[in-house]
Specification:
- The chain contains 18 helices and no strands.
- The chain is mainly α.
- The protein has a domain of about 90 residues: Serine Threonine Protein Phosphatase 5, Tetratricopeptide repeat (Alpha Horseshoe).
- α3 runs parallel beside α6, α8 packs antiparallel against α9 and α16 runs antiparallel to α17.
- The longest helix is centred in the first third of the chain and has 17 residues.
- The relative contact order is 0.06.
Length: about 325
Amino acid sequence: MEYVLAEMRARELRAAHDFAAAAASAREASRLAEEAGDSTSAWHMRFFEGDCLVEAGQRELCLPLVQALIDSPVASAEPGLLARALVLAAKCLQSTGRLAEAVEAATRSVGILQFGRGDGALLLQARQALVAALAESGELGSAWDHCLAMKDEITDDMNQQDVGRAYWTIGNVAFLNDRPDDGVDFHERATDTFSPGRDLDLWAKFNKASAAMRLAAGIADAGTLQCLQRAELAMEIAGGSVQDHLLLDIARANWNLLAGHAQSAVDLLAPICDSGGGSIAAQTAAEATALLARALKQLGQHGEAQERLESAARLFRGAGAQERARQLEEA
């Protein structure tokens, strides 16, 4: 009974977006299940804890936990659970800049699931984790190949939120591959698929990310502004993590820059870059720094702009994004 109450509490806290508290409650539920001799329930609650830690931005704490999940006899006996843990590992590794390891973990997960050991929704998640890690590593051709495979794996009976996430990912990679029309098309498919009434937090994150991708492609049109406004409104209602708000500030800064308001962009970006970017992924911090360099250059502050550009290149190299670093160094 204590275990059931702790699990219910964890799920309630997650639904309220109190991810750190949800992780703590899931840890307690796992302990209680272990004491009762229910190792499978204990495994699931540890996984739930790790997933909440990722949402809370505490990814370094998640890495040892997820490794224990992968090494667990429970995962060894059930390939689907192992694949799920590997997806979580890939997300943690990617967000901490360990891109090669993220690709390896996601590739293992896809390999397990391609042989029918798991449901289609989980295969979509594994593909998305692999695509994200490949894209951040600069392996855009491979990422696009996996996107095309993922598109073919979508079926009519799948959960619409899962399908929306898949279209979102495919659109992202299309943008990165200089296919802006495809990027807008797949993001519009995601818009039509997602339900803000069902998950307002996801709706906010998608619109924020879509705006960022459109802006990175130089698309500063009414559709992009609508994405920003949707994200800002949704986050006002649903809240959001520190990371969510920082990412939205970066997107808004990019909009300001493209709209000719460079000083407003600097005002948003400088505090983020000067803080060391501890609440956002290493590559995102690098992108924010590169954007700040552009804004400073537009204001005629060429010396500081060059310093920020060099800093961005170092951050990209530290994140394993060598090609992106090279592009900046040659700019």
